[in-house]
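Regression report. Comparing outputs from two consecutive submissions.

Submission 1:
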Amino acid sequence: MLPEVGLEGQKKICSTSVLCIGAGGLGSPIAMYLAAAGIGKLGILDFDAVDESNLQRQLLHGTEDVGRFKTDSARDAIHSINPLVEVVPHRERITSANALDLIRPYDIVVDGTDNFPTRYLTNDACVLLKKPNVFGAIFKFEGQSSVFAPHLGGPCYRCLYPEPPPPGSVPSCGEAGVLGVLPGVIGCIQATEILKLAAGIGTTLLGRMLVYDALEMKFRELRLRRDPQCPICGEKPTITQLIDYDQFCGVKPKGEKTPMHPDEVSVQDMKLALDDCTLAIKVVDIREPSEYAAAHIPGVMFLPLSELQLRLDELDPNQTYYIHCRSGGRSMKLVQFLKQNGFKNVKSVAGGIHAWADEFDPVMPKV
């Protein structure tokens, strides 16, 4: 009924194929609305299983799906909305070895991932294959969306973020938390952009980044420019094939142990300090109150990092401290700060409370 779409536009939508990378918080509204709109072919790429903690934001799955592969529950949910959609499950991890083959058959790619190696991999594969990459990202209360397509005259993800952040500096939704409705908002924006690209109508987010702040209920727009020095879509590209993205982003392969830093101690050292008072070592938990309320270790001093500047005088520069956070990132940064301010006997607990839970308390919630 929309004259801007019409029968011809609907036919274009019905003949369009979309690969949705990720069937989680963003992938849920994307897949559901594309199915309802009559998208012709929808690939769902995800290797994970549904977890109960996913359900506040992943409406593609229900409580009865806990433990099932997301590709299976997504297929059933999509067909319950529109049985005419061709759903192609890809129950595998996207890698440099298979990305081009996975993406090549589809017209549009939508990025619903939550990790940097996959984002850079998706971007590079789309640039090489000249496929539009409909991007979305969420974090706590903020989300952003854009369309990356150098072949259509816009920038790519690398134009905006040439280098990934340091490993562990940006937590995932599962680690930092996210307002459950936020991926619904951003995912709907991504689905809107896909339908516009498919029907050939409107003005897309090509060359623009839409940023949404849920707490303030504000949208703002950032103008993006293509970087002529971009290593993959610039004037003289240096990346002409897919690379090792875990290595590029500094992600260690599972099972590979990282050597302990001189300013770190193990959770075994922390337990010894808690058990043996003659060592005169104090253990300090610097996580935030919400994290502490969900899980903490008895006998540990609690001093939230956000309050440290006001409560620094509670720490004795001559005392030995073992400092722990969630997984070791914040505590290491604090140790460096304290050492610069006269504290000589401070150590960060490697792996934080997560390592403690793995070693000593497997039923402890990992938040």
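Submission 2:
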Amino acid sequence: MIKSKLNKIDEMKTIYIKLRQFGLNKTHPDIKKFQDIVKEYIHSNESFSGKIRITDTNRVLEYILPKTNKHECQVMLRYKP
């Protein structure tokens, strides 16, 4: 079953809270890129996945945003020197 917009928004709220705990908020240009992807994800019935290099850190944001209820959204910050 395809996720509803409300389900997607609820999952993304949790992810944004965790990102803020790491000091990454919507003022960071790379997080803005991620927000654009999330907006497209919420308004479509497609899955999204990929990586975004977080400038000024040694981190890469990896994301998996599935379209079905079977799987939760996953976002990971990986260390990349």
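Expected: both submissions complete independently.
Actual: both completed, but the second showed a warning that disappeared on reload.
Relevant detail on submission 2: The first helix runs from residue 5 to 21.
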